């Protein structure tokens, strides 16, 4: 059974700085919002608002962070960038897909992380970059 079937009742979110509207598709094959911005093989989604908030805050594009409510159009799987390397068992409820995500709405009111948390995360990501470790490995 695919993860999509197991989680079909969960609301899913995608954090970014892209200005999107309902009906838009977020698809792989474009420059990633993170790291060296190489062509993304997957699109990422989460079932937690906190993880989507991190995505909105850490995306490299200009503009304000946005959190969208999305629905997968195909199978999803656990995001190994988080589940295998950082958080076994997927407590962040983070997933990825090779199929597009359809934007169905936007979370207009969400709380960003404290400035010191955001600074610490950016410093951590910069240390990884200096070590040659990409934040997202497709």
TrEMBL record:
The cross-references to Gene3D superfamilies, in alphabetical order and at most eight, read:
Rifampin ADP-ribosyltransferase domain (3.20.170.40)
Q: Which residues form the Rifampin ADP-ribosyltransferase domain?
A: 12-110
**Higher taxonomy:** Bacteria, Pseudomonadati, Bacteroidota, Cytophagia, Cytophagales
The name this protein carries in UniProt is: NAD(+)--rifampin ADP-ribosyltransferase
Q: Give the matching InterPro entries.
A: Arr_sf (IPR038611), Rifampin_Arr (IPR021975)
The UniProt annotation puts the region (Disordered) at 72-98
Q: Which domain of life is it from?
A: Bacteria
